[in-house]
Amino acid sequence: MSKTTYYFDNAATTPVRKEVLDAMMPFFTENYGNASSIYEVGARSKNYINEARKIVSDAIGCYENELFFTASGSEADNWAIKGVAYSKKSKGNHIITSAIEHHAVLHTLEFLEKQGYEVTYLPVDEYGQISLDDLKNAIKDSTILITIMYANNEIGTIEPIKEIAKIAKEHNVIFHTDAVQAVGAVPINVHELGVDMLSLSGHKFNGPKGVGALYIKKGLRIDNLIHGGAQESNRRAGTENTPGIIGLAKAIELATTNLNEKIERVSKLRDYTIKEIEKRIPYCRLNGHRTDRLCGNVNFSFRFIEGESLLLMLDLKGVAASSGSACTSGSLDPSHVLLAIGLPHEIAHGSLRISIGYQNTKEEIDYLLDILPPIVERLRQMSPLYDEIKGDL
What we know:
The chain contains 16 helices and twelve strands.
């Protein structure tokens, strides 16, 4: 087995920072009380959770009573979408989304369609952005929810969230954004954006897995997803994951401190990677918007190769990357995102996503850039289509 030395799959998950782990450890062994208990050790846990809620709320610009902890970003997406669908059913049954959403959104909507809800899937342009005119034209009297991701997990394209929120407000439609990839990567203030709900997940910004959060605008009542106890102000049952919540708070505090400096540094690595790949490897295509893009996202399609083989050969060289969403890594189908931006199946199959984290260095990028071209060339030598192209040159 190869030992992974170079990790470039930060969009899938990130390593927990030491400061985060250190902050979490006492809540496994010392401050382990159930936060719903009235005795001192439980009340102490409750106080720490309240402090963590303030930290996370401040990081995204909301009030503390607007933030609810979940077990994941997927749960937050499910809660936002199903919660609106069920609570607003008397008003309508129409939901608008985009064709490139994460499967936590798409599969939730497919579930609702089986229950009689109507869903409009907005197309995207070649860069992965929706049309605001398409959005306006899709809204009708029965529309109860718009759910559009903040930034795409595969190609990194950032959507015009503030403009979408304005349109939603003008039509009195609730707007949810899946910001799992965006929190910790771009500055976010939910009140300034005008969104009604926002999902986030701790493990995407060097926090622990198994903890996320959903922002719900004050005054917005939606149905609960999980029933049981009275935790999270009677809105999300389940014993609080105190260590995870503490870790989430510490991670988002670290991720958003000096965020603009981090964005500038990671963006330089991203742009350098894109420039060098385009220079060194022919017949490649950058996927996603060139400027309206997450600072750490690089996604290329390489003609005449198959993405899975590329990933395996990179792994043998100690490099971890991906061909798209980790949630679909077992699928043989090409990425729905790449198909939505217009790529044919054979090119979509040859994609590589390099997602750069705060911990990555230029030296690591240079190693990747040294090994990637010969791997691509070796794989292309196995393609009869590539032989025909070379023969014509």
